[in-house]
């Protein structure tokens, strides 16, 4: 990376909160928090899980179904929407909410993680990232300023700063250089945000630093010094051991202000959600509930269910006895197995509905546990119940 790794100049002098976004805490239990994030499109009770709508759709579900499941907020992908159909098309058609027929809040990521995953197709410099489209190989360039402009055009409620997702493993010096580049990009994003046409919405900064606690702490402190409406912890769940991930998240979250929302990016197993809430995170996203559903894996309070397994051939019970989702109210494990092994599209839809219902229920239970001051007891019961579950064997 052809950049200097440090600068003696201040990055940014802070700024006023964006229009239409506020956050208030309603309860705490240790580090765990329950709050309300108020956006121009409604209130979001935290902790909250945001299903991932990569292409302006949560795969396999209609917006009305998401609302019925209790989904309050979704995530859309800046990189993919920039490539297809293009932010100009979305803006022409009335913005992302009208385009995807979703009335609730939308968070858009910056595209940094997707560019990170392109590996040999990208080149990172101080100015930004040059990369080739995975669709047609065309040359593209993403800078902090253009990342902000794209998200402004999409019309999301929460936009994310462009950052460099540090790979794992990384030497300390590499992680430090990457972290400082993300900080400089964050300052440029903030300047571009402030200079852009005024409108509703919020901009979140992102904490990096790999698995090094000192770098995570420094990144958090310097990101807060720039001043954002909320703060995310990024660059985790990229191959590091679980213990290292939780330690890095704990250090970063503890260094963030208590009066701003905290977003733990891309961390999304049920176990990770419980631990993330215990550490003080308010917002989560992950493709796991939808992607795993399409691959035949279901989440339940007692562990996972791999629906292709032969044990379900004649099983007349629902996926989960105490689940009130559409799938569990109407269909047996045997029928779901039949659909899945027959490669019927309905299987993916029904399994997705259950997994999203499970995630929404888990977040509601976590919030209630925080409000009651019982988060530690809830976590113990949760981990004890999930000791069972299927293997991948048929």
Q: Which strand-content bin applies to the residues?
A: 15-25%
Count of discrete alpha- or pi-helical segments spanning 4 or more residues:
15
Helix content: 40-55%
**Uncertain regions spanning at least 5 consecutive residues:** 12-17
- Tally of strands: 16
Strand order of the largest sheet: 4-5-6-10-11-12-13-14
Question: What number of structural domains do the residues give?
Answer: 2
Assign an overall shape: globular
User: Quick one: biggest sheet?
Assistant: 8 strands, parallel, barrel
- Report the CATH superfamily of the largest domain: Queuine tRNA-ribosyltransferase-like
Please describe what this structure looks like.
- The strands form four sheets. Strands 4-5-6-10-11-12-13-14 form an eight-stranded parallel barrel, surrounded by six helices. The chain has a three-stranded antiparallel sheet with strand order 1-2-3.
- Residues 12-17 have low confidence and may be disordered.
- It is an alpha/beta fold and 394 residues long.
- The protein folds into two domains: 22-285, Alpha-Beta Barrel (TIM Barrel); 293-385, no CATH class.
- It is built from 15 helices and 16 strands.
- The chain has helices at 63-69, 78-83, 87-92, 96-100, 112-117, 144-154, 172-195, 213-226, 242-254, 270-279, 288-294, 326-330, 333-341, 345-372, 375-385, and strands at residues 22-29, 32-39, 42-46, 48-53, 74-77, 106-109, 122-124, 129-132, 139-142, 158-160, 202-207, 230-233, 262-264, 283-286, 297-300, 303-306.
Write a concise synopsis of the structure shown.
The chain is of the alpha/beta class and 394 residues long. The chain contains 15 helices and 16 strands. The chain folds into two domains: 22-285, TIM Barrel, CATH 3.20.20.105; 293-385, no CATH class.
